[in-house]
Amino acid sequence: MVRTEPSSSATVRRSPIPVFRPPGQPVRTTAPPSAAAQAAAAFRNILALQPDGAGDWFSLGGALTEAGDGPAALRALTRAQNTSAATESEPLAEAFERAGLLLYAAADWTGAADAFRKARSLAPHRAEAHRKLGAALAQAGDPEGAVEALGEALRLDPTLADAQTNLVHLLVTLGRFDAAERAGRRAVALDPGNPDAYGNMVPLLEQTVRVAEALRQCGRATRLAPDRAAFHRNRLSLLLHEGRRDEAVAAGREAIRLAPADAETHLALAVALLASGQFREGWEEFEWRWETRQLDPVHRSFAQPEWTGAEDVAGRTVLLYAEQGLGDTLQFVRYAPLLAARGARVLVGCSPALVRLMERADGVSAAIAWGGDLPPFDLHIPMMSLPRAFATDLGSIPAPVPYLHADPADVALWRDRLPEDGRLRVGLVWAGSPRTVRGVASPIDRRRSLPLAALAPLADVPGVRFVSLQMGPGAAQLAEAPAGMDIADPMAGVRDFADTAALAETLDLVITVDTSVCHLAGGLGRPVWTLSRADACWRWLGNREDSPWYPTMRVFGQDRSGDWSGVVARLRAALTDFVAARGHAP
Predict the structure, then answer these.
(1) Contacts of 334 (CB under 8 A, 6+ apart)
(2) Model confidence over 61-108: pLDDT tens digits?
(3) Could you give the CA distance from residue 325 to residue 12 in angstroms, rounded to a whole number?
(4) Are 215 and 237 in contact, with CB atoms under 8 Å apart?
(5) How far apart are CA 292 and CA 130, in angstroms?
(6) Which residues on neighbouring strands pair with residue 317, listed in sequence order?
(7) Residue 494, C-beta contacts closer than 8 angstroms, at least 6 positions apart
(8) CB atoms within 10 A of CB 324
(9) Are strands 528-532 and 553-557 parallel, antiparallel or unpaired?
(10) Contacting residues for 147 by C-beta, under 8 A, at least 6 apart
(11) How far, rounded to the nearest angstrom, does the alpha carbon of residue 277 sit from its chain's CA centroid?
(12) What is the pTM for the complete model shown?
């Protein structure tokens, strides 16, 4: 079974997909299902007359297992366990394991975990009971419990290769990379012919910025199991990380050939196509995102139809609603004026932090905090389906700026708070939102962020006063700002993105990592320099220096993953030229 873990954030996931080995398959040892069902009926008749017969409950549980009814088998076996403490523990433990396998195969992770937990309590010396419990807990979203169960399985039987393989994936999920690497090496040593032993090393290696080795491990997994679509999808992600976009697209097509109905595979191909500028096909594939589970929290059903781009909108109200990050809303609200030009009244449903700003966006009639009551509307469309609806290709991106506007009264207020002193004012954002899951930061956020200390060379550029636009945990780094860096921190007075927009309007330049502020500054038409990781987001088209989405943006992309030194050196040179061109150098 291929297990694709849900995303920790509302963005398109690009990390390689781990393969989680199931605990096994239910094994039929006696009667066929029809005969088993007849036996179950017979035992139910007996139990109707003698409800306290532990042996009969045990036999009923076995018959129901043979008949393929995992939930009913678990109930019967539990009754057998509760009816008599004298019931033999080993056969009953095995019966619970078999019922648990049925529940696992039916994706009833909670029921499976319950069954395996009962098996473990009856026979705590059985390593397999602990291993199967670990697999079920992993699927149920309890990685800590799963690690504990698998660890006990391996203590009892260190040769359980599947337990070791599954442990790798779980430890990566928890951010325990050193332990994951040790487990991965042991998994390969225990079962060198197991493709998952290599495949589960891929996310670890990518997250620790060892992409070349990750590609080698992915190659080994693919050679052992060439028909596994997940391995080709992993390769797609790694090739994008390396900037090999055409090869990534080819890997995605092979994955879809092997798994034509797999939504995660189609979504991965969409990212590769968009990153390579093949927008028309990319937008079509991108619609598969709704078939994955990562957008479940934002997917809403409406009685009104979805607008596809074909329906006449003149005189009708169209709801555009946010579906992913704040930056996505800021980027794709650019389509509101196009709808308004067709005669539509445009509503925007978005994060409360964006409402005041969205109310002033071009083409928008009203903005509503997403999740609350909505006014009447006729049609709806999620924000990131707008490019498909408008048949956007690389040459037809609607890029007139500004399409976002700060309130002039707010701009005046911020000018008073940060009076000019003759120097150029440059906004800085050095970290994205960590989007932690169980205390572990998003791997993409770790790659896109850099420490404020890494920007120390900018402090030497004369004629500049820096202004922090940093929110979240990264702002704490201001307490140890680089020596000589004159940086103001007005963010305590910022209530929402409308305030940030007004503050940005008072700046000469914004320098930011790839987070919502780059879309804000770009939509405002402000000069903005975006620092991009080596495995760039698809919108930056492989870190080309200009952006077709934002005419005032310049992209500074990493040459190597994890290495910001080259970016900062180019940034310092560009900033020196920027200051000199405006005559602000002393």
Answers:
(1) 362, 398, 399, 403, 523
(2) 676 676 677 777 777 777 776 666 545 577 888 888 887 887 888 888
(3) 10
(4) no
(5) 30
(6) 345
(7) 471, 500, 503
(8) 19
(9) parallel
(10) 134, 167, 170, 171, 174
(11) 22
(12) 0.80
